[in-house]
Amino acid sequence: MNSLSINAMALADGHLPVLPLGADKRPLGNCPECADLACGGRPNMKTPGPCVCPWPCHGWAAATTNPTVLASRQWGLAWRRARAIGYHPGGADVTVVDLDNPDAVTWARTTLPPTKTVPTTRGEHWIYSGTVRSVNGVREGVDIKSLMSYARWLGPGTGTMTDVPDAVHALVAQKPAARLAPRPVTMPAPAGGGQCPHRSPAYLERGIAMAEQRITDAASGVHAAVYRTFLAVLSAHGRCGCLTEAHIGRLFTAAQAKGESARHCTDAWSNALTTLGI
């Protein structure tokens, strides 16, 4: 373990979800197929590519506090290439107001309530307690990093952390969330062959409804939540022939409503099938 991975383990022990960053401040892939982003990126990095890993291997969704994962061989390879530590603010229940130049810092000092601050290369990070939707460019030189985003760890900072102020909520609200209409995707239902364990159609209906709700309720780690939900559904219903394309469509619609792309839904479903050997 190098010094970066040791520091990351210490931060994770303090409940900060961490991930390795390269010299360009972008997340590094922590599996062999995604080393140096050879796969082209992931939807959770806003750079879709052909990566087909069955777990989040880079981007904000890969941030973790699990010491076993952080000490694993695949993460160890990434930490050796890493040049910085990143973290998922939303996973730590904080919001980072990233002030990228002196003018932005001056604006914050005259507009926002004091909170914990961390100096950066060009400005400051102001860190508040609580989460909001992440939005870049809410004003000149100001980005909001919280849910479904990552920030660079630059130290513990100074000052006392306060709650996300109304002014930050207002900045986020003035930038409408980009919502793509769910795109119909047809996936063939798994072929039957196993013994059906379901006593009634209501059992399957309840399982699908619970899976939809699990995706809808995901406040962070949506990418991972979608994959795990697909895996759970297929574990219970994938071998007996009960699932129909209509059931699969409901799960994909729920995932797309949370911001997942149609392509990512298809990849996650295929990865779950592969993992289970279906």
Tell me what you see in this structure:
- This protein has nine helices and eight strands.
- β6 (135-139) and β7 form a beta hairpin.
- The longest helix is centred in the C-terminal third of the chain and has 17 residues, at 201-217.
- α6 runs antiparallel to α7 (222-237), α6 packs parallel to α8 (245-257) and α7 (222-237) packs across α9.
- The chain has three domains: 3-87, no CATH class; 90-173, no CATH class; 201-276, no CATH class.
- With 278 residues, the chain is of the alpha+beta class.
What is the fold's blueprint, element by element?
Layout: H1 3-13, E1 18-21, H2 67-70, H3 73-81, E2 84-87, E3 94-99, H4 102-111, E4 116-119, E5 124-129, E6 135-139, E7 142-145, E8 151-152, H5 166-173, H6 201-217, H7 222-237, H8 245-257, H9 262-276
Antiparallel strand pairs: 1-2, 2-8, 3-5, 3-7, 4-5, 6-7
Helix pairs in contact: 6-7, 6-8, 7-9
